[in-house]
């Protein structure tokens, strides 16, 4: 597949942008080779600058759950753009999106809009520390919550992809306030709360991890986190930036029936435009300025274009759409496992409505250590074999894949046909 123009653009980009990208995981460092530069997208398809097209399993890292170029959403943004791009003042659209969020996510009694998932989690952490008067926070190895200082400790996603244990530039004193434990290990959580009684402000967790590959919580895990945190007076924060409005209309918390104290959102809630949000218990949210002393702000927070895109997306995410996406997820993953196994490859997978990961060379993936043991070279070879057949997967074994409403049965079948070729190439190599 000829991607010469992408390579030319990458060389040009590197002259003015570090690594040629505005977010590290796009740089293909994990899988090797030059990233693909895209020109346009439609439904499940991406079209690159060399005229190639690909079935898209990233969807802008989650937001494009209705498919690219979703007509009502494009129209909503165009109509708002014709009125104003922004005010720096309140609008009714912000209320409409807030009302929609709290209606769909019952634990979120109040919500504040921000401009990214990072801002959402950074703000939620500050709120938890201010509300509890405690400094320590607990996260889990391989979970990624954006790039704010306190959360770049044993993080996932691009930090894992680039093999960075932590990030330079985070003061040691601040990093020391972040405790990190293996995901899915409830005993370790109980022990750390015994070790630091009354000191931990919050637990922040991806209820379904998506930044060390897709990792599902063990059956009692989330309830255990909830109970241990509350027994000690700590808050439970569900980082649903990835799972929010993806795995169900109310996110992972609705799927598992757990009510966190705070929830962070991003990606889908902005319909592809820059939006994050954090919210939860009203008594906690009231501590945020201007009603409370804990400061948080943003020039473009609640931007009307972004509100229009987010509102349209949520309004079109009906129960039927989730059923369609769920069925497509099952068909794709069952088909991938069947074909890989028939080719003689050892694979395992984790899947949930609209989100999945395929792992090579291991028989289970329950935490970061499992994924670290997987055959990354085989994943990378699979990635490129699929890319060269017009299927665009996440360019890292430590990411999740995303399925949207426009991944029809024909699209899934085309993907499975490409995978059959890719698996046989792997075995033949
Ligand atoms: P952003 O600041 O990138 O909008 O959101 C950070 C974030 C927070 N929490 C979770 C659970 C997330 O998955 C993310 C961001 N996800 C990555 C994909 N693994 C974004 C892709 C990128 O970094 O370019």
Task: Give a written overview of the molecule.
It is a single chain. With 429 residues, the chain is an alpha/beta fold. The protein has 2 domains: 4-69 and 318-428, Aspartate Aminotransferase, domain 1 (Alpha-Beta Complex), CATH 3.90.1150; 71-315, Type I PLP-dependent aspartate aminotransferase-like (Major domain) (Aspartate Aminotransferase, domain 2, 3-Layer(aba) Sandwich), CATH 3.40.640.10. Helices cover 39% and strands 15% of the residues. The protein contains 15 helices and 14 strands. The chain has helices at 4-16, 71-83, 92-104, 117-132, 158-161, 172-175, 186-195, 221-232, 251-256, 282-285, 304-316, 319-342, 368-372, 376-387, 409-428; strands spanning 38-42, 45-48, 53-56, 110-114, 136-140, 178-181, 200-205, 235-239, 262-265, 276-280, 347-352, 355-360, 391-392, 401-402. The strands form 3 sheets. The protein has a 7-stranded mixed beta sheet with strand order 4-10-9-8-7-5-6, with helices on both faces. Strands 1-2-3-13 form a 4-stranded mixed beta sheet. A 3-stranded antiparallel beta sheet has the order 11-12-14. Helix 2 (71-83) runs antiparallel to helix 11, helix 3 runs parallel beside helix 11 and helix 12 runs parallel beside helix 15 (409-428). The longest helix is centred in the C-terminal third of the chain and has 24 residues, at 319-342. The mean pLDDT is 97.
